[in-house]
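pinging the channel bc i need a second pair of eyes. not urgent but kinda urgent?? the chain im working w is below, pasted from the shared doc
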Amino acid sequence: MVMSSVATADPITAAEAAEHRDRGTAIVVDMRPQVVRHQGSLPGAVVVEPGELHDAFEPGSSRRIPAIDGLDTEIDVVSVKSQAARIAQKIAAMGYTNVHYVVGEYRALRTAIGHK
């Protein structure tokens, strides 16, 4: 079967990402480089170095994130602003169907989590 659809990654608000994380319906992935994570951590987020993207998400990888149940798992990506959409798109291109990048990035999500 030939698939002609283009993989997409859509934006998600920080409030939506926090709510989905709290309900247990999404995995928040912090893909900020280590040098940027000095800003602080995101409670409940899975930290992945940008250079480890392939191993962390490739469906056949023995190092894939254990919390990923399947290709329809909601994955909400936080990274530096210039990289988030591109990283989310790369994850979607691996076959994932529910990938988002968080609008407002770390600060917006940290604020949304703090207001819960």
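so The first helix runs from residue 14 to 23. and Helices lie at 14-23, 53-57, 84-93, 105-114. — does that match what u expected or am i reading it wrong
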